[in-house]
Amino acid sequence: MKANKIIAGAALVGAIALTATGCAGGGGAAAGGGGGGSDVITVGFAQTGSESGWRSANTESMKEAFSEANGFNLIFNAADNKPEAQIAAVRSFINQGVDAIVLAPIVTDGWDDVLKEAKDANIPVILEDRTVSASEDLYASWVGLDFKKEGETAGKWVADNFGSTPTNMVVLEGTTGSSAATDRAEGFNSAISGTDIKVLDSQTGNFTRAEGKTVMEGFLQKYGSQINLLFAHNDDMGLGALEAIKAAGLTPGTDIKIVTIDAVKDGMTALSKGEFNYIVECNPLLGEKAAEIVKKVVAGESVDKSYIVEDQAFDQEQAAKVLDSRPY
Ligand code: GZL
């Protein structure tokens, strides 16, 4: 924390701030940290919320990496999937004078002003998971996944397995305006172009089970047995849709084929049981890399602008083999 801020903080709350953080400064010149003689790095982490199993695994990974034992004082905020609340959280971190901000942006747009404020306060911002449309000079680095490639991998599997016969598909999109949803859709659609896959309908389920179930109920009421295939941008919406499909007396994975992205435990369990047909992984374990980047940036060392974590994909047979050994 900046010396002037931490001293003000200590004055206001007595020894608590100093005990919790040490006299955290320690940030390198590049980070504008206030010195203060301690190596503790105070990080404000603005998480999207807790919308899915993937998010829970990502939050756990981040909290494990940004631990006191690893030299951090973590201030955590989950914005309940509300972009305006997330912007307010970042502004609060700036006002607290943290040494660095980590941000998992709910949506791509609307970040220019608050990222400029962080830059003017000499507080580096590191993005994890999703990306922003703001200029690259407003953040130090990004660590995440190749969402477009995830969509392409899912789309290629669908094209290879169903593309040569007339197939009616419905789509459960992720959060509108998020880079995960936008890029997955772009990749998937490019992979199925020119095939016999017809999109009957496509709506957002906001990456949640509850909304995935509700939207799938609407699809089933409207299209019924016309639906041959569901592409869900994440496992959780697919798991919600599973409930709706079963409630309609249909067999998921057979009557309606299901392809999703994430590969969290519940999704891989459904896949190994034959209720899903294919899952493209999206690795949520980004904490270690994010913490490594923060330490380098705060120490004034150079870092790459982006770090992409590799993904893999699973069919039913592969899921059954790896299920028990999966880390999340
Ligand atoms: C992807 C991440 C997405 C997941 C969802 O990196 O942003 O958000 O696919 C999560 O499960 O809610």
TrEMBL record:
**Family matches, as InterPro entries:** Peripla_BP_I, SBP_2_dom
> Where does the record place the Periplasmic binding protein domain?
44-301
Identify the SUPFAM superfamilies for this entry: Periplasmic binding protein-like I (SSF53822)
One Pfam annotation reads Peripla_BP_4
Entry keywords, A to Z: Signal
Tell where it localizes.
Cell envelope
Transmembrane segment boundaries: none
Q: Which family does it belong to?
A: Belongs to the bacterial solute-binding protein 2 family.
PANTHER family tied to this protein: D-ALLOSE-BINDING PERIPLASMIC PROTEIN-RELATED (PTHR46847), GALACTOFURANOSE-BINDING PROTEIN YTFQ (PTHR46847:SF3)
Its protein name is: ABC transporter substrate-binding protein
